[in-house]
Amino acid sequence: MGHILVSIPVFLLLSVLQTVVVSRIEVLSGSGDIILLTIISWIIIDEEGSHIAWAIIGGFLISILSAMPIASTMLTYFSIAMIAKFTSNVFWQSPILALFSASIAGTIIKFVIEFATMIFIDIPVPILISITNILLPTLLLNLFFTMPIYILMGDLSRVVSPGEENYA
Amino acid sequence: MKSTDPKRLRNIVAIMFVIGLIFLALSGILRPVLGVVMEPLISIQRWLSERFMAVYDFFSLPRDVTDLLQRNAQLENEVSNLQSQVIQLQEQLRETEVLYSLLDFARARPQDQYSAAAVIGRDPSPFLHYVIIDRGSDDGIQYGMPVVTQQGLVGRIDAVTSSAARVQLITDPGSVINVKLQNQNEDAQIRGSVTGEITLEMVSQNVSFESGEILLTSGLGGDYPVDILVGQVVDVETTENNLFQSASVQPVVDFDALRAVLVIINFQTINIQPLIPEQS
């Protein structure tokens, strides 16, 4: 329960950072997503199983700020949480491998869902331009932000659960 | 007659001698003699003084260096503070310049009422081109109100809370705006894209226009006021097989450096949806 309560101020802070800072750091048309990386990092570090709650809280806060439909945003972050849990189970001996695998897969899943949403709401989006101008730069930026977010989440985990040493 | 005391006489002679020496010294007669006597004394004094100061410096200099280092640190702190103040003042100056420009724009269009707002965020999705401003329904902002800067059209209000609002930029892929070509007096549409580029569409093949053509809002559809500057045509694409011509548009607003905007709060959007016949 404590881990879920902690996620609220964390995501509030990260949402502000995302809209004010990270979204302005653009490569072509792509920008990083620290909410996505936070959810993935926390799921890999935390073993209490609060990943669904983190995905819901993160997705909800982003859906307030974004013009993307709420269903799309919630589905995006829920899928990312599932992928992170899956990679965490598959690569349980190597959290770093799980982290980067989940970051790459999560970024691609987010792109696919948002692309499908744009098509669904009848906004024309060329696929090749979207891949070269959005997906690849976003992937690059997310990989760049992955380790700092993971280290921060590790520190947060130690603060929240001082007795546990889940962070590798 | 009382005999003179020899001791007293010696004192008088000594005093007279001293007074005489003083007079001689004051008159300058003794200067060469004094020079000969004083020169070695001064040399000795200089030599001793130099050695003494060397020893004195040896013991006192570390303390002075410490003092200097502290003073240097203090001065560096002051310099840092002053530099941060300079940066703050430059920032305020830039904001003031932006606000003055907005004020000039507002004065140029007295028929409109404006509410100035600062841009405080961007949409987290890279597919969308929206910004968040720090004015909401408490400040009279409503859905659909046009947003401009001193340069031209920015977009329109898409969502409102009590203290903030989300603005759909004209570069957003979902944004379609009715415009007119200033010199041709021809209506057309501009459409945004995921890359932030704007395309001019629906220009009749009969119209001849070139790069540099100015685009203004036409007011058709009731979403935007008339004659707000939108951009400039940079590259015309004419294909004979197509029904319409298209062109790339350079917006007049620099969306990467968007800091403050004006919301036209007395503009009433017109909902023409009920007038459009339903397609079976």
**End-to-end gap of chain A:** 23 Å
The portion of residues assigned to helices of chain B is 25-40%
Q: Numbering strands along the chain, what is their spatial order in the largest sheet of chain A?
A: 1-2
Shape of chain B: rod-shaped
Q: State Rg of chain A.
A: 15 Å
Order of helices and strands of chain A: HEEHHHHH
Count of DSSP E strands of chain B? 12
Most residues in contact, chain pair and counts: A-B, 33 and 21 residues
- Structural domain tally of chain A: 1
Give an overview in words.
The complex is a heterodimer of chains A (168) and B (280). With 168 residues, chain A is mostly helical. Chain A has one domain. Helix content of chain A is 76%, strand content 2%. Chain A contains 6 helices and 2 strands. Chain A has helices at 2-20, 34-45, 51-65, 70-90, 95-120, 127-160; strands at residues 26-27, 30-31. Chain A has a two-stranded antiparallel sheet. In chain A, helix 2 runs parallel beside helix 4 and helix 4 packs antiparallel against helix 5 (95-120). The relative contact order of chain A is 0.17. The model of chain A has no long low-confidence stretch (mean pLDDT 86). Chain B folds into 3 domains: 9-108, no CATH class; 114-169, Rod shape-determining protein MreC, domain 1 (Thrombin, subunit H), CATH 2.40.10.340; 176-252, Thrombin, subunit H. In chain B, the strands form 2 sheets. A 6-stranded antiparallel barrel of chain B has the order 1-2-5-4-3-12. Chain B has a 6-stranded antiparallel barrel with strand order 6-7-8-11-10-9. In chain B, strand 6 and strand 7 form a beta hairpin. The model of chain B has no long low-confidence stretch (mean pLDDT 83). At the A-B interface, helix 1, strand 2, helix 5 and helix 6 of A face strand 1 of B.
